[in-house]
TrEMBL record:
Keyword Iron: yes
InterPro entries referenced in this protein's UniProt entry, alphabetically: Cholesterol_7-desaturase, LigXa_C, Rieske_2Fe-2S, Rieske_2Fe-2S_sf
Superkingdom in the source lineage: Bacteria
Gene3D superfamilies named in the record: Rieske [2Fe-2S] iron-sulphur domain
Pfam families registered for this protein in UniProt: LigXa_C (PF19301), Rieske (PF00355)
UniProt keyword terms in alphabetical order: 2Fe-2S, Iron, Iron-sulfur, Metal-binding, Oxidoreductase
UniProt-listed PROSITE patterns: RIESKE
Keyword Transferase in record: no
Residue ranges annotated for the Rieske domain, each copy included: 27-135
Protein name: Rieske 2Fe-2S domain-containing protein
Originating organism: Ferviditalea candida
């Protein structure tokens, strides 16, 4: 349970909100690479309550600027995209995808070049990796780009989708860190934890190992033969959750703050050893909407109970909602745009969420005192972070098996 002040501190990200200022110091995905076409339409990107414009120049290079033209504020979504630059249709001011003002035709010829150098065009560092366009919106020295496993792979091994959900960013993140709900909310889709012959108890026992980058959370469920089924989730600050999958296939979710009341929920599917199979892609796409740039569409609302199918529930489906991600989204939205964490009654399976919140509160205090945000002041090999599901015999430490798998 949090106080009202703590809940506000952790959830508000717009303007000068402390959490927003701190989170801007981290790299984050802005949009899918496929959403930008060379010399194609500029695309609006909204993050931390601010609007930006993204585009791809003739040379294939992606760029992100403030959306408003620095001259009079006209939207650069209307701009011409050509010659590796955006040209504002209002007065023809031209801005290159290298972040420099190229031309200001409304100025006298003898002073155009000098004037252009003074135009305060606000552009941002951009990287492309993992089939996504990433941006850094912070202040000061740009931190090292996080070379997470999927950011080191060829595009054939990775696929990213994004959905926009009407809840605060922390709500989206907490849903991905919470592994206890998997065997309940999603059981009609994956059949992980039935109360049949396999599991002694569907309630997991949590074991948490703090890591320099966040938390390693093991959910252990005892089998009837005394062995344990283990799901290890890796939470990587500030917004990554690596979801346990068997074998070389893996899934990472990212929760990006759009504004105080909206979150971008990213799902990245990747395979470390081979091109991502069509089966894996089709499995995920069978559960979502048709637009990979916003797959939570069409979506329900409170008024129609988020399109929940009560007849399907009578037939045995647990949630009455098709699609694992969509199940998460409707539960998140049902809490309201910003959940009131002062009224929570947490249980033992909420330990990872509680620790993550404390980590954020400590990082915010450090940041206020001039220290770097959590994990930005140390060298981390993000490419080594992996997770898995496995079984261990009775009275065996799951960490030993996890280390064995991680070494492969």
């Amino acid at each position: 349970m949090l106080t009202k002040e703590q809940n506000e501190l952790l959830t508000r990200v717009e303007g000068d909100a402390p959490m927003g200022k701190m989170l801007r110091q981290y790299w984050l995905p802005a949009l899918r690479s496929e959403a930008l076409v060379a010399d194609g339409d500029p695309v609006r990107v909204r993050l931390f309550g601010q609007n930006f414009v993204a585009f791809r120049g003739t040379d294939g290079k992606a760029a992100i600027f403030d959306e408003g033209c620095p001259h009079r504020g006209a939207s650069l979504l209307l701009a011409r995209n050509e010659d590796c630059a955006l040209t504002c249709i209002f007065h023809g001011w031209k801005f290159g995808n290298n972040g420099k003002t190229v031309d200001v035709p409304t100025e006298p010829k003898d002073r155009r070049e000098a004037f252009a150098k003074k135009v305060p065009l606000k552009s941002y560092p951009v990287k492309e990796a993992g089939t996504m366009v990433w941006v850094w919106l912070g202040e000061g020295e740009v931190p090292e780009f996080p070379m997470l496993k999927f950011n080191t792979m060829p595009d054939t091994h990775v696929r990213a989708w994004v959905a926009y959900v009407q809840v605060n960013w922390l709500q989206g993140l907490e849903a991905t860190v919470d592994t206890a709900h998997v065997g309940v909310l999603h059981k009609s889709h994956i059949g992980l934890l039935s109360e049949g012959d396999e599991f002694e108890d569907i309630a997991p026992r949590y074991d948490i190992d703090p890591q320099p980058y966040g938390l390693r959370a093991a959910a252990l469920r005892r089998m009837k033969d005394g062995s344990e089924y283990v799901r290890v989730t890796e939470y990587v600050a500030p917004w990554y959750s690596f979801i346990p999958q068997p074998g070389t296939h893996a899934v990472c979710t990212i929760s990006t703050p759009i504004d105080d009341y909206n979150v971008g929920q990213w799902y990245i599917s990747f395979d470390s050893e081979q091109p991502l199979s069509e089966d894996k892609i089709q499995f995920f796409e069978s559960m979502i909407g048709p637009d990979p740039n916003n797959f939570y569409n069409p979506k329900g609302t409170f008024e129609n109970r988020w399109l929940q199918d009560r007849e399907l529930m009578k037939q045995g489906h647990f949630s009455g909602v098709q699609g694992i991600p969509i199940e998460d989204f409707i539960v998140e939205e049902s809490m309201g745009p910003i959940a009131d964490r002062t009224k929570e009654f947490l249980g033992s399976t909420d330990i990872a969420i509680a620790r993550m919140r404390r980590m954020f509160l400590k990082s915010l205090e450090d940041f206020k005192n001039g220290l770097p945000p959590f994990a930005l002041n140390i060298k981390i090999d993000y490419s080594k972070i992996k997770t898995n599901t496995f079984y261990v015999p009775k009275n065996t430490d799951w960490r030993d098996k996890f280390k064995e798998i991680a070494m492969k």
